[in-house]
Here is the input.
Amino acid sequence: MLAASLILAALMGAPFSPRAVVPVTSAAVTASVQPAAFNPSAMARAHVAKITITPATAGTATTVIENQTGAIVETLGSAIPVVAATPIEYTWAGTGVADGVYGIHSTLTDAQGVVSETVVPVTVDTTAPGVSFGALRPALTKRGPVALRASTDDLSGAASIRVDVASQTDVPIGSADVAVGADGTSGATDWNLRLRKRLLLPGVYRLRATITDRAGNIGTSDARLLRVDRAVTTRIIYSLPDAGNVIALTFDDCGSNRDFQRIVSAFRAAKAQTTFFCNGVNVRDNTSADRAAIAAGNTIGSHTWLHPQMPTLPYGEQVSQIRGDVDAWWKVAKVSPAPFFRPPYGLHNATTLRAAGDAGFAWTVLWDVDPSDYLTPPPGELVQRVVSKARKGSIVVMHANANTAATVPQLIRAVRAQGLEPKSLDQMFGASAYLAPLGS
Ligand SMILES: [Zn+2]
Here is the structure.
């Protein structure tokens, strides 16, 4: 009933008010409650209300909890003798009552028989707040600001709202706090795209709003996609030696849907993730493997549209080769290869690096291990070439061809036996893949 009237009030645009219990104040007796909203079944958070009754004069005090119709749901103290200005304290566990607003009703009868009353509302709320996360405005931006808006019709109201930002593969990057309006129904913030003081790099991100209500219950929205696109300075990396006992087995080109799919399946079976640098033309043609790779949480990077020797092309064509791959991935799976770019054959000149940066790629990913898998060595030989060169944080360049695809399960076992766990670039970099250097 209460919830229905609150929803109705929200629909009508009336100010949110769970205060269906009318407060009563008195000079002779005061009551306070901490917290004013609580969840009796919560484990870690405040799960009882601490109630303090302070009489101004001596007499006897009766304190009860009433529901909204005035019926007593629990008696905390009956005709208790009290001394002036000496508080008495109760706790109320809210056991067995429905969610709602209750009244702490204290009655003081003094020596002359004069009766004084106070009523203070307290909210029992065991329900996670529903979270409505408004459309991002804009959903495609260079540097922000992006308007973040979230609302709830929660019984106790929002105490805090934050928006968690994750990569498209759900690597957590950071959170933006959203200012909550005084009535606790909504919050809005113009977010400047900074997380931990660093500006978010170009790419596609998943944003979710989380609301914690005043009783400590937590609700989270579905994800919304944010696209960031602007020119950056690209940096070449060959390996990530600080990443620990991990190795990035990466696969380029993706010319065959079957071989591409087979590698995706092999990593899924091994409970590991990898990275694909596919050409846009293959992304366009191999959509089932594309989607399987994304669904399994693998990282993708750009490898240009048609696999040209980039230094032979003028700037404008180099940019459009990279942009073509970006557009292909967005069309197929609403994802972006940014911030990872790998030029075909590793060939690059200053123009290539400028084109990659201008197209939004912060990392030009080369390698420190090349087993020449395109020459289709026998499986044992291919594995041996990798393990003999692999070290902590190595990046291994391979190709999504039939011979390599058939070797992947054996290769994963071999690097694990060497003490190196195969990881995607997202997993190896973590959040730092997505954040610009401080001050940029
Ligand atoms: Zn290639």
